[in-house]
Design goal:
mainly beta; Lipocalin; 10-stranded antiparallel beta barrel; 4-stranded antiparallel β-sheet; about 10% helix; globular
Length: about 325
């Protein structure tokens, strides 16, 4: 049995087991889950490994921001959600408001999902929460039956939708579309397997191998860079207070007066060779797919840096 099938069966199995659990979730479970849920997650490592192994269907590279906000008009436990693709926060594919509550009937933590009537008004609200200040339920839309229920499974929380409850009529095909979500949240990662089929059982979206997107929790580093100025000029182009996460985070190097240079820094936890995880700090030149240079250390290292004489940079882990 392949590793991917094993992972898929693991998620599917624990999801079914969670649905059958009779123990009700309480306030302590809620607090634990909210703590785990807050943060940013990215599946860069999964995508990197699939490409290295030549996997036929490589997962989309997605980054998820789950930012807690105080918004009584929406609920008691609310998150602003911003999700984008390919490491480019401008390539947003989903923006939502999440509201968590205890559901006594289901004996679970219930997640209600709301979309915005006008998406663009609220982009990047995790960086500027004042955009949400006057948000009300009238600005949001939800679909009955698309709630996600969460239950504790040892050290994890398992999320699921009720069977075929989340559905709608497609404007494009005129057919009814059924959506299902299976999720697994731990202190280190969130796995998301969402997929859809039409009323005839035909594929609409989702990974065809039914393998979840495996997003790792991002750790944040702060740092600096110094690059020699153009040939013949004295001194260095210096940048300070840089901030980058370790799941494929990228920063374009700038001149002192803010002009972009051809170079980009990347910090990424990747898997090399026979299952060896490393933290890699690399320098890329515009137009070239391979790094100009890189260094590596153990995942979670407190410090990492590189000195190429003409370019120096260093980053330090910001412990939460």
């Amino acid at each position: 049995m392949s590793k991917w099938i094993t992972l898929m069966l693991l998620l599917f199995g624990v999801t079914l087991q969670a649905q059958k659990q009779k123990k009700a979730m309480g306030p302590a479970d809620m607090q634990d889950m909210l703590t785990l849920f807050a943060g940013e997650f990215d599946n860069h490592r999964q995508v990197y490994k699939e490409r290295e192994e030549g996997v036929k269907e490589v997962h989309e590279h997605i980054h998820s921001v789950f930012h807690p906000v105080r918004l009584p008009a929406v609920g008691s436990h609310v998150f602003y959600v911003y999700q984008y693709m390919d490491g480019d926060e401008r390539k947003v594919y989903r923006q939502r408001m999440y509201s968590f509550s205890l559901d006594k009937a289901e004996k679970a933590i219930r997640l209600d999902i709301f979309s915005f009537k006008v998406d663009s008004t609220y982009y990047f609200s995790h960086k500027d929460t004042s955009k949400l200040r006057y948000l009300t339920m009238a600005d949001l839309v939800s679909t009955d039956g698309c709630e996600v229920y969460w239950k504790r499974q040892e050290e994890a929380f398992i999320g699921y939708m009720k069977d075929r409850a989340c559905n709608f009529i497609s404007k494009r095909s005129g057919k009814r579309i059924f959506i299902t979500d299976s999720l697994r949240l731990t202190k280190d990662a969130i796995w998301i397997r969402d997929e859809a089929e039409d009323e005839g059982g035909n594929y609409v979206f989702g990974h065809k191998g039914k393998i979840p997107h495996m997003l790792d929790r991002c750790r944040w580093y702060t740092g600096w860079s110094a690059m020699q100025k153009a040939e013949g000029a004295e001194g260095y182009e210096v940048q300070r207070s840089l901030r980058m996460h370790d799941k494929g985070g990228r920063i374009r190097m700038l001149t002192t007066d803010g002009k972009p240079t051809p170079y980009t820094l990347e910090l990424a936890e990747v898997n090399y060779g026979k299952g060896i995880d490393v933290l890699k700090l690399a320098v890329y030149e515009e137009g070239k797919s391979k790094a100009v240079a890189y260094t590596w250390s153990a995942p979670g290292s407190e410090r990492i840096g590189i000195n190429l004489r003409w370019l120096e940079t260093g980053f330090t882990w910001v412990k939460q």
